[in-house]
Amino acid sequence: MAAATNERAEQRPHSVWLTGRPPLRRKAEQPAGLGLDKIVEATVRLLDAEGLAKFSMRRLAAELGVTAMSLYWYVDTKDDLLELAVDAVAGELALPDDADDDTADWRDQLRGLATTYRDVLLRHPWAPRLLGEVLNIGPHSMAFSSATLRVMARSGLGPDGTSGALASLFHFVYGFATIRSLHEARCRAAGLSIDDYFAHVIAAISDRPDFTETMELSARAGYAMPDASALDMLDRDFAFALDLQIAGIDALRAGRAD
């Protein structure tokens, strides 16, 4: 039995939030001028500028002007630091004011939560990948989860539908933001704005007979127009799709109430 218990313990997913202690080892020998907040801020800044693939503790140390070993007074591993960075950007999420719970429309609050989630993912395009790999149970992330649950509790949907409704909504937001971030990264790599890249693609396929029907249908739907702004189109589509998500939750809630 002891062997089986130890095996299960070794297989437990590692997380900085499951260590049972704050992610900081305070020792007399710790480097002067450093602090965990400063290290996490620099990590986010570096990830925003260079991306996840280029990030390393050595690169971070150079950014801070210290040795790589100095960072390990504060975190055990690079993965721990990345978890802290994910939760740091979760601190940028705009949460509803608790004082408005009695008067605010839950639909408007849910729309605001989804929109701020989209905006944070777009500002930090490295975050979506980490959100799929880490437990994401830091204090800022949990505050956001609590806010969404409080809003849904006032929707009247009921506890048996809350989890699925939130999964549908925020998985949609996650997917929309992730795909847009990847597309924008491709445009930057090509040295073009997203509007220029979109116009280039439309020009390349507009004269091809095999795309004639697609181009005609796309134009009717508001796509594939030479003077269209790709960013405006994406924002419009996100807003409409978000309305569909919330309308679906509202319709299900009303149906169950009837």
Total separate domains: 2
Q: Which percent bin holds the helix content?
A: 55-70%
The succession of helices and strands, N to C, reads HHHHHHHHHHHH
CATH topology of the largest domain: Tetracycline Repressor, domain 2
CATH homologous superfamily annotation of the largest domain: Tetracycline Repressor, domain 2
- For the secondary structure, the number of strands is 0
Provide the gyration radius in Å: 23 Å
Mean pLDDT: 86
In short:
With 258 residues, this protein is mainly α.
Q: Can you put this structure into words, describing what you see?
A:
With 258 residues, this protein is an all-alpha fold. It has two domains: 2-90, Homeodomain-like (Arc Repressor Mutant, subunit A); 98-257, Tetracycline Repressor, domain 2. 65% of the residues lie in helices and 0% in strands. It contains twelve helices and no strands. The chain has helices spanning 2-11, 36-50, 57-64, 68-71, 78-90, 106-123, 127-131, 139-153, 159-189, 194-205, 212-220, 230-257. The longest helix is centred in the C-terminal third of the chain and has 31 residues, at 159-189. It is flat. The model is unreliable at 1-9 (pLDDT under 50).
Helices and strands, with pairings:
Elements: H1 2-11, H2 36-50, H3 57-64, H4 68-71, H5 78-90, H6 106-123, H7 127-131, H8 139-153, H9 159-189, H10 194-205, H11 212-220, H12 230-257
Helix pairs in contact: 2-5, 5-8, 6-8, 6-9, 6-12, 9-12
